[in-house]
Specification:
CATH superfamily of the largest domain: Medium-chain alcohol dehydrogenases, catalytic domain
CATH architecture of the largest domain: Alpha-Beta Complex
CATH topology of the largest domain: Quinone Oxidoreductase, Chain A, domain 1
Largest sheet: 7 strands, mixed
Distance between the termini: 12 Å
Number of helices: 8
Number of domains: 2
Radius of gyration: 19 Å
CATH class of the largest domain: Alpha Beta
Helix content: 10-25%
Shape: globular
Length: 299
Protein backbone atom coordinates (compact mmCIF):
# COMPACT_ATOMS: atom_id res chain seq x y z
CA UNK A 1 0.00 0.00 0.00
CA UNK A 2 0.98 3.66 -0.32
CA UNK A 3 1.97 5.75 2.70
CA UNK A 4 3.47 9.19 3.26
CA UNK A 5 6.75 8.90 5.15
CA UNK A 6 10.00 10.74 5.78
CA UNK A 7 13.39 9.04 5.70
CA UNK A 8 15.33 12.15 6.66
CA UNK A 9 14.54 15.48 8.26
CA UNK A 10 14.01 18.72 6.39
CA UNK A 11 11.43 20.64 4.44
CA UNK A 12 8.31 19.50 2.60
CA UNK A 13 10.48 17.96 -0.11
CA UNK A 14 11.46 15.20 2.35
CA UNK A 15 7.94 13.76 2.30
CA UNK A 16 7.84 10.61 0.16
CA UNK A 17 5.12 8.24 -0.97
CA UNK A 18 6.43 4.76 -0.20
CA UNK A 19 5.12 1.26 -0.81
CA UNK A 20 4.84 -0.46 2.57
CA UNK A 21 3.12 -3.61 3.84
CA UNK A 22 -0.53 -3.35 4.83
CA UNK A 23 -0.58 -3.26 8.66
CA UNK A 24 -2.21 -6.10 10.58
CA UNK A 25 -4.35 -5.25 13.63
CA UNK A 26 -3.16 -6.80 16.89
CA UNK A 27 -5.35 -7.63 19.88
CA UNK A 28 -7.57 -4.69 20.76
CA UNK A 29 -6.97 -2.92 17.46
CA UNK A 30 -8.88 -2.22 14.27
CA UNK A 31 -7.69 -1.58 10.72
CA UNK A 32 -9.23 1.35 8.87
CA UNK A 33 -9.39 1.84 5.12
CA UNK A 34 -8.45 5.51 5.07
CA UNK A 35 -10.73 7.90 3.18
CA UNK A 36 -9.29 11.16 4.52
CA UNK A 37 -6.65 12.30 6.99
CA UNK A 38 -5.91 15.77 8.35
CA UNK A 39 -2.53 17.44 7.85
CA UNK A 40 -1.60 19.09 11.15
CA UNK A 41 1.29 21.28 12.32
CA UNK A 42 2.57 18.30 14.30
CA UNK A 43 3.18 16.53 10.97
CA UNK A 44 5.49 19.35 9.93
CA UNK A 45 7.26 19.06 13.27
CA UNK A 46 7.78 15.31 12.76
CA UNK A 47 9.12 15.97 9.26
CA UNK A 48 11.57 18.58 10.46
CA UNK A 49 12.94 16.42 13.29
CA UNK A 50 11.45 18.14 16.33
CA UNK A 51 10.65 14.79 17.96
CA UNK A 52 13.76 12.91 16.88
CA UNK A 53 13.87 9.53 15.20
CA UNK A 54 16.98 10.11 13.11
CA UNK A 55 17.74 7.17 10.85
CA UNK A 56 14.23 5.74 11.06
CA UNK A 57 11.41 5.72 8.55
CA UNK A 58 8.75 7.90 10.15
CA UNK A 59 5.10 7.71 9.22
CA UNK A 60 3.02 10.88 9.06
CA UNK A 61 -0.55 11.54 10.10
CA UNK A 62 -2.58 11.47 13.33
CA UNK A 63 -6.18 12.12 12.17
CA UNK A 64 -8.18 9.56 10.24
CA UNK A 65 -11.66 9.18 8.80
CA UNK A 66 -12.54 5.99 6.98
CA UNK A 67 -14.15 2.59 7.09
CA UNK A 68 -13.28 -0.36 9.29
CA UNK A 69 -11.61 -3.03 7.19
CA UNK A 70 -10.70 -5.61 9.84
CA UNK A 71 -10.99 -6.01 13.61
CA UNK A 72 -8.25 -7.60 15.70
CA UNK A 73 -8.63 -10.29 18.34
CA UNK A 74 -10.63 -9.33 21.41
CA UNK A 75 -12.37 -6.36 19.81
CA UNK A 76 -16.11 -6.10 20.40
CA UNK A 77 -18.62 -3.48 19.37
CA UNK A 78 -16.95 -2.79 16.02
CA UNK A 79 -17.29 -4.54 12.69
CA UNK A 80 -16.08 -4.22 9.12
CA UNK A 81 -17.90 -1.59 7.11
CA UNK A 82 -18.54 0.92 9.90
CA UNK A 83 -17.52 4.53 9.16
CA UNK A 84 -15.27 5.83 11.91
CA UNK A 85 -12.96 8.64 12.94
CA UNK A 86 -9.97 8.31 15.22
CA UNK A 87 -6.71 9.66 16.56
CA UNK A 88 -3.49 7.71 16.13
CA UNK A 89 -1.24 9.31 18.71
CA UNK A 90 2.54 9.30 18.38
CA UNK A 91 5.17 11.48 16.70
CA UNK A 92 7.79 8.73 16.21
CA UNK A 93 6.14 5.76 14.48
CA UNK A 94 6.83 3.77 11.31
CA UNK A 95 3.35 4.27 9.88
CA UNK A 96 0.77 7.01 10.43
CA UNK A 97 -2.66 7.74 9.03
CA UNK A 98 -1.39 9.34 5.81
CA UNK A 99 -1.70 5.97 4.14
CA UNK A 100 -4.21 3.73 2.44
CA UNK A 101 -4.72 1.74 5.66
CA UNK A 102 -4.11 2.59 9.30
CA UNK A 103 -4.27 0.56 12.50
CA UNK A 104 -5.61 2.15 15.69
CA UNK A 105 -6.55 0.94 19.14
CA UNK A 106 -10.28 0.30 19.21
CA UNK A 107 -10.53 2.64 22.21
CA UNK A 108 -9.27 5.53 20.05
CA UNK A 109 -12.11 5.57 17.51
CA UNK A 110 -15.70 6.75 17.33
CA UNK A 111 -18.49 6.39 14.81
CA UNK A 112 -17.99 9.08 12.16
CA UNK A 113 -20.33 12.08 12.00
CA UNK A 114 -23.31 11.39 9.77
CA UNK A 115 -23.79 15.03 8.80
CA UNK A 116 -20.42 15.74 7.12
CA UNK A 117 -18.22 14.05 4.55
CA UNK A 118 -14.98 12.19 5.28
CA UNK A 119 -12.79 15.24 4.63
CA UNK A 120 -14.60 17.32 7.25
CA UNK A 121 -14.71 14.38 9.66
CA UNK A 122 -10.92 14.05 9.35
CA UNK A 123 -10.55 17.60 10.66
CA UNK A 124 -12.08 16.64 14.01
CA UNK A 125 -10.00 14.15 16.05
CA UNK A 126 -6.71 15.89 16.91
CA UNK A 127 -7.98 19.47 16.84
CA UNK A 128 -11.28 18.68 18.53
CA UNK A 129 -9.78 16.66 21.36
CA UNK A 130 -7.09 19.31 21.87
CA UNK A 131 -9.61 22.14 22.07
CA UNK A 132 -12.00 20.20 24.30
CA UNK A 133 -9.29 19.25 26.78
CA UNK A 134 -8.06 22.85 26.90
CA UNK A 135 -11.55 24.18 27.66
CA UNK A 136 -11.96 21.55 30.38
CA UNK A 137 -8.62 22.56 31.93
CA UNK A 138 -9.78 26.17 32.20
CA UNK A 139 -12.19 24.98 34.88
CA UNK A 140 -14.09 28.26 34.77
CA UNK A 141 -17.69 28.73 35.88
CA UNK A 142 -20.32 29.82 33.36
CA UNK A 143 -20.24 33.57 32.87
CA UNK A 144 -16.47 33.79 33.35
CA UNK A 145 -14.42 35.66 30.78
CA UNK A 146 -11.89 33.88 28.57
CA UNK A 147 -9.60 35.09 25.84
CA UNK A 148 -8.79 32.59 23.07
CA UNK A 149 -5.62 33.47 21.17
CA UNK A 150 -5.21 32.18 17.63
CA UNK A 151 -8.99 32.04 17.46
CA UNK A 152 -9.13 31.90 13.66
CA UNK A 153 -7.03 28.74 13.55
CA UNK A 154 -8.54 25.27 13.53
CA UNK A 155 -7.92 24.50 17.21
CA UNK A 156 -8.65 28.06 18.30
CA UNK A 157 -11.90 28.14 16.36
CA UNK A 158 -13.08 24.88 17.90
CA UNK A 159 -12.06 26.18 21.33
CA UNK A 160 -14.16 29.31 20.81
CA UNK A 161 -17.21 27.19 19.98
CA UNK A 162 -16.70 24.79 22.90
CA UNK A 163 -16.04 27.62 25.37
CA UNK A 164 -19.23 29.41 24.29
CA UNK A 165 -21.13 26.15 24.70
CA UNK A 166 -19.69 25.89 28.24
CA UNK A 167 -21.27 29.24 29.05
CA UNK A 168 -18.09 31.29 29.01
CA UNK A 169 -17.91 34.87 27.75
CA UNK A 170 -15.40 34.53 24.92
CA UNK A 171 -13.15 37.18 23.44
CA UNK A 172 -11.21 36.13 20.36
CA UNK A 173 -7.71 37.34 19.52
CA UNK A 174 -6.94 37.02 15.81
CA UNK A 175 -5.94 39.02 12.74
CA UNK A 176 -8.13 42.01 11.96
CA UNK A 177 -9.29 40.32 8.76
CA UNK A 178 -10.71 37.41 10.77
CA UNK A 179 -13.09 39.32 13.03
CA UNK A 180 -16.15 38.21 11.06
CA UNK A 181 -15.03 34.59 11.14
CA UNK A 182 -14.45 34.38 14.89
CA UNK A 183 -17.66 36.22 15.68
CA UNK A 184 -19.53 33.74 13.48
CA UNK A 185 -18.11 30.99 15.71
CA UNK A 186 -19.65 32.65 18.76
CA UNK A 187 -17.05 35.07 20.11
CA UNK A 188 -18.71 38.00 21.88
CA UNK A 189 -15.60 40.16 21.85
CA UNK A 190 -12.67 40.68 19.51
CA UNK A 191 -9.07 41.81 19.97
CA UNK A 192 -6.89 42.39 16.87
CA UNK A 193 -3.56 40.56 16.89
CA UNK A 194 -0.82 42.74 18.35
CA UNK A 195 -3.10 44.52 20.80
CA UNK A 196 -4.27 43.76 24.34
CA UNK A 197 -7.81 43.27 25.68
CA UNK A 198 -9.41 46.23 27.42
CA UNK A 199 -8.97 44.59 30.82
CA UNK A 200 -7.82 41.39 32.49
CA UNK A 201 -9.75 38.19 31.85
CA UNK A 202 -10.47 35.22 34.08
CA UNK A 203 -8.64 32.87 31.76
CA UNK A 204 -6.61 32.62 28.59
CA UNK A 205 -6.66 29.63 26.24
CA UNK A 206 -3.45 30.21 24.32
CA UNK A 207 -3.97 28.45 21.00
CA UNK A 208 -1.45 30.80 19.35
CA UNK A 209 1.26 29.78 21.85
CA UNK A 210 2.05 33.41 22.72
CA UNK A 211 3.31 32.46 26.18
CA UNK A 212 4.19 35.32 28.54
CA UNK A 213 2.34 38.05 26.60
CA UNK A 214 -0.86 35.99 26.86
CA UNK A 215 -0.25 35.33 30.56
CA UNK A 216 -0.16 39.09 31.13
CA UNK A 217 -3.80 39.32 30.04
CA UNK A 218 -4.95 37.08 32.92
CA UNK A 219 -6.21 38.58 36.16
CA UNK A 220 -4.49 37.78 39.44
CA UNK A 221 -5.59 34.31 40.51
CA UNK A 222 -6.91 33.43 37.05
CA UNK A 223 -5.93 30.57 34.76
CA UNK A 224 -3.73 30.12 31.69
CA UNK A 225 -3.97 27.02 29.49
CA UNK A 226 -1.22 26.35 26.97
CA UNK A 227 -1.54 23.98 24.02
CA UNK A 228 2.11 23.03 23.52
CA UNK A 229 3.59 20.73 26.18
CA UNK A 230 6.59 22.14 28.06
CA UNK A 231 6.14 25.60 26.51
CA UNK A 232 3.94 27.36 29.08
CA UNK A 233 5.27 30.45 30.89
CA UNK A 234 6.11 30.32 34.59
CA UNK A 235 3.20 30.96 36.94
CA UNK A 236 2.94 34.35 38.60
CA UNK A 237 0.40 36.48 40.49
CA UNK A 238 -1.39 33.38 41.71
CA UNK A 239 -2.32 32.36 38.17
CA UNK A 240 -2.88 28.64 37.66
CA UNK A 241 -0.88 27.53 34.62
CA UNK A 242 -1.97 24.38 32.81
CA UNK A 243 -0.58 22.55 29.81
CA UNK A 244 -2.70 20.16 27.80
CA UNK A 245 -1.37 17.18 25.87
CA UNK A 246 -3.80 15.42 23.59
CA UNK A 247 -4.46 11.71 23.98
CA UNK A 248 -6.61 9.21 22.06
CA UNK A 249 -10.07 9.02 23.62
CA UNK A 250 -12.82 7.41 21.61
CA UNK A 251 -15.51 8.16 24.18
CA UNK A 252 -14.69 11.88 24.25
CA UNK A 253 -14.41 11.90 20.47
CA UNK A 254 -17.90 10.38 20.26
CA UNK A 255 -19.24 13.31 22.31
CA UNK A 256 -17.64 15.76 19.87
CA UNK A 257 -19.14 13.84 16.94
CA UNK A 258 -22.58 14.28 18.51
CA UNK A 259 -21.98 18.04 18.66
CA UNK A 260 -21.07 18.06 14.98
CA UNK A 261 -24.22 16.16 14.08
CA UNK A 262 -26.40 18.44 16.21
CA UNK A 263 -24.98 21.52 14.49
CA UNK A 264 -23.28 22.81 17.65
CA UNK A 265 -19.72 22.34 16.35
CA UNK A 266 -18.58 23.53 12.92
CA UNK A 267 -15.65 21.84 11.18
CA UNK A 268 -13.62 23.81 8.64
CA UNK A 269 -11.67 22.36 5.72
CA UNK A 270 -9.37 24.72 3.85
CA UNK A 271 -8.80 22.31 0.96
CA UNK A 272 -8.36 18.66 0.06
CA UNK A 273 -5.20 17.23 -1.52
CA UNK A 274 -4.68 13.69 -2.84
CA UNK A 275 -2.34 11.45 -0.87
CA UNK A 276 0.02 11.34 -3.85
CA UNK A 277 0.74 15.07 -3.32
CA UNK A 278 1.44 14.87 0.41
CA UNK A 279 4.65 16.87 -0.12
CA UNK A 280 2.63 19.66 -1.72
CA UNK A 281 0.25 19.63 1.25
CA UNK A 282 3.21 20.07 3.59
CA UNK A 283 4.42 23.00 1.50
CA UNK A 284 1.03 24.68 1.76
CA UNK A 285 0.90 24.06 5.50
CA UNK A 286 4.39 25.54 5.93
CA UNK A 287 3.38 28.63 3.95
CA UNK A 288 0.67 29.42 6.53
CA UNK A 289 -2.45 31.48 6.06
CA UNK A 290 -4.86 28.54 5.94
CA UNK A 291 -8.31 29.04 7.45
CA UNK A 292 -9.35 25.47 8.10
CA UNK A 293 -7.69 22.06 8.08
CA UNK A 294 -5.84 20.82 5.00
CA UNK A 295 -6.94 17.23 4.38
CA UNK A 296 -5.37 14.40 2.40
CA UNK A 297 -7.82 12.23 0.51
CA UNK A 298 -7.21 8.61 -0.43
CA UNK A 299 -8.88 7.24 -3.56
Amino acid sequence: MRAAVVNGFGGPERVEIAEVPVPVPAAGQIRIRVHAAGVNPVDGAVRSGVFGGEGQRLGLGWDVAGEIDEVGPGVSGWEAGQRVVGLQYGPVKPLGTHAEYAVLDASAVAVAPASVDAAAAAALPLSGLTAARAVDLLGLAPGSSVLVTGAAGVVGGLAVQLAVRAGLKVTALAGAEDEGLVRSLGAAGFVPRGTAPAGPVDGVLDAAVLGEPALSFVRDGGVYVGLRPHAAPAAERGIRVEEQEVAPDGAHLARLVSLVDSGELTLRVADTVPLADAAGAHARLAAGGLRGRLVLTVA
